[in-house]
């Protein structure tokens, strides 16, 4: 569904991402894992045609990233880190507005709104102003707007940021339920989130992909690391204490 090759983005002398290459397969959930500032959001903005790459190539749903941006946008649902919500609109009115922007209308749009409202757990708040919703429901509305036009690919940037533990569980379950019907990329800096949701993970640091593997393989390889090295300078007594505690 996505084939990215050697994507690089520079701002003058600052390199945000460099030589990023990966594939997104049909029906899978791919996790971008890395610390803040690693290049996750930059990569997602490039793939959703919100930001041009400095160099590199990519195809999304069979279309070239540079030649066919509008065709790509029609096939991608995007939830940025800060959901693009109009707080003075009701949930239903907002989803209708987004659907019309995506070229939908009439019975098809109404049916699709009903579907995303039900699928995203928004039935009880569908006629409320978005401004009056909790953070968790706002995230659900953000995901709903990414789904309303039946995209082949969904891109979610930090979808559980700022949520409480119960809301995090609900959003993770919602995302996982979308696998198979859609191909999904999500970014996070939380390892348990990748383990819970994703089929495959890319670890990115300082703008470069450093590891690409399945979640199971990463978990199994991590279990083999049993040695811990500690260096203390001029702390002989403390070192002896740590050694005694370890035994």
Report on the structure:
Helix 3 (91-101) crosses helix 4 (106-119) and helix 4 packs across helix 5 (135-147). It contains 9 helices and 10 strands. The protein is an alpha/beta fold and 247 residues long. Helices cover 38% and strands 25% of the residues. 36% of the residues are buried.
Which SSEs are present, and which pair or pack?
Blueprint: E1 2-11, E2 14-24, E3 29-33, H1 40-47, E4 55-60, E5 63-64, H2 69-75, E6 76-79, H3 91-101, H4 106-119, H5 135-147, E7 153-157, H6 165-177, E8 183-188, H7 191-197, E9 200-205, E10 208-214, H8 215-223, H9 236-246
Parallel strand pairs: 3-8, 3-9, 6-7, 7-8
Antiparallel strand pairs: 1-2, 1-4, 4-5, 9-10
Helix pairs in contact: 3-4, 4-5
Features:
247 residues, alpha/beta, Rossmann fold, 10 strands
Q: Find the structural class using helix and strand composition.
A: alpha/beta
Strand arrangement in the largest pleated sheet: 6-7-8-3-9-10
Strand content: 25-35%
Number of β-strand runs: 10
Poorly predicted segments? none
Integer-rounded radius of gyration: 21 Å
Number of helices: 9
Topology-level CATH name: Rossmann fold
Q: Helix content range of the residues, please?
A: 25-40%
- CATH architecture grouping: 3-Layer(aba) Sandwich
* Terminal residue distance: 52 Å
State the fourth-level CATH superfamily.
P-loop containing nucleotide triphosphate hydrolases
| Overall average pLDDT | 87
| Main β sheet profile | 6 strands, mixed
Order of helices and strands: EEEHEEHEHHHEHEHEEHH
Number of domains: 1
Q: What is the level 1 CATH name?
A: Alpha Beta
Shape, principal axes of CA atoms: globular
């Amino acid at each position: 569904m996505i084939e990215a090759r050697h994507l690089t983005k520079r701002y003058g002398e600052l390199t945000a991402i460099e030589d990023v290459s990966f594939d997104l397969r049909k029906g899978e959930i791919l996790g971008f894992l890395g610390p803040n500032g690693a290049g996750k959001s930059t990569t997602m903005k490039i793939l959703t045609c919100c930001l041009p790459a400095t160099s590199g190539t990519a195809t999304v749903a069979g279309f070239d990233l540079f030649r066919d941006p509008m065709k790509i946008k029609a096939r991608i649902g995007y939830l940025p880190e800060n959901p693009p919500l109009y707080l003075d609109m009701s949930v239903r009115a907002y989803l209708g507005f987004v659907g019309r922007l995506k070229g939908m209308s009439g019975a098809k749009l109404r049916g699709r709104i009903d579907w995303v409202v039900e699928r995203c757990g928004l039935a009880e708040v569908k006629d409320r102003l978005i401004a009056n919703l909790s953070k968790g429901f706002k995230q659900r509305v953000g995901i709903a707007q990414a789904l309303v036009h039946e995209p082949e690919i969904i891109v979610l940037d930090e979808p559980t940021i700022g949520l409480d533990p119960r809301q995090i569980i609900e959003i993770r379950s919602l995302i996982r339920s979308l696998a198979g019907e859609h191909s999904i990329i999500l970014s996070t800096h939380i390892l348990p989130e990748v383990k819970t949701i994703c089929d495959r993970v890319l670890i990115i640091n300082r703008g470069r992909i450093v590891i690409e593997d399945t979640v199971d393989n990463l978990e199994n390889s991590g279990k083999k690391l049993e040695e811990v090295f500690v260096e203390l300078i001029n702390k002989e007594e403390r070192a002896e204490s740590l050694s005694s505690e370890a035994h």
